[in-house]
Amino acid sequence: KVRVYKEDPDDKSLELIGEDQIDHTPKNEEVLLYIGNAFDIKAERTMINKKSTGKRSREETWEVKIRNHKEGDNVEVQVVERFHYFWKIKSSSHRYKKLSANKVQFSVPVMRDSEAVLTYTVKLSW
Fold it and tell me: Cβ(98)–Cβ(87) under 8 Å?
């Protein structure tokens, strides 16, 4: 079991922010922890364009609006998207990295008490 704490800036005490179990993981490999949902970070995902680019391909443009309702913290939100076809990111408003054959991760900084918008276009083929 792993417990994650955050220091309270006012009195320097440690506050529990979440916990999770660790599966069997080989030495020197990445461990993924789920420590809960952030209630003050909200996102809304909308397809804003879709067009056929061939008999077996299309392009989709997506917009993800992320709102940070935290009073004191700027955050960097990791948006993970999964694709079920061959894919290629054609354009993106934010940096991203390919995680696997069907998964990409976008990094979106969001200032406290504000909104950031991720927009990307992906070409899908099958």
Answer: no
Closest CA to 76 of 63, 66, 61: 66
| Full residue range of the structural domain in which residue 78 is found | 38-125
The answer to whether residues 107 and 55 belong to one domain is yes
Q: How far apart are CA 18 and CA 5, in angstroms?
A: 7
Here the contacts of 46-55 (C-beta below 8 Å, separation 24 or greater) are: 48/119, 49/121, 53/123, 54/125
Pair (112, 60) in one structural domain: yes
Give me the tens of pLDDT residue by residue for the chain, a chain 126 residues long.
899 998 988 899 998 888 999 888 899 998 888 888 888 999 999 999 999 999 999 999 999 999 999 888 899 999 999 999 999 999 999 999 999 999 999 999 999 999 999 999 999 999
